[in-house]
Design goal:
six-stranded mixed beta sheet; 5 helices
Length: 145
């Protein structure tokens, strides 16, 4: 079993769409991230009638990673609904792309699975070119932060 299958199966266990209330829809998008240390963390989408309250599965997985281990670097990520990603599937939304870029400079190198069958991936940096935060990272590195 390769790492993508392990991540798929871990995330798939989170998939069970439900409505905790008339305003909330959850567990209909799931994700798994592999941390720098190799541990897999999962997450599920939590959507409400008010977009500012929503949490994407990708960010929930990353927050679990950070809360559990303090790690901020992600090696790999998979996200999907009822089936594994196909074609150009499994792409994180803009908010999630931004979150991963801000969480750790090295996350630009994280692999995102876009096609499960062929194991095709894309790196985050190709989805968010010329990112506005590069200058701030450079300044922080220069200032010893």
């Amino acid at each position: 079993m390769d790492i993508w299958e392990k991540m798929y199966l871990a995330a798939k266990a989170e998939y069970h769409p439900e409505r905790p209330s008339p305003f909330i829809y959850a567990h209909h998008v799931v994700a798994a991230v592999e941390s720098e240390s190799g541990k897999i963390y999962t997450g599920f989408c939590f959507e409400s009638c008010s977009g500012v309250l929503d949490l994407c599965a990708e960010r929930v997985a990353a927050l679990r990673m950070y809360a559990d281990s303090g790690e901020t670097k992600v090696r790999r990520m998979i996200a999907f609904r009822s089936e594994p990603p196909k074609g150009q599937g499994g792409m994180p939304c803009g908010a999630c792309r931004e979150f991963f870029m801000q969480l750790d400079y090295e996350n630009r190198n994280m692999e995102i699975l876009t096609d499960y069958e062929s194991r095709t991936t894309v790196r985050l940096e190709t989805l968010i070119p010329n990112w506005w935060g590069d200058k701030r990272y450079e300044e922080a590195k220069r200032d010893g932060e």
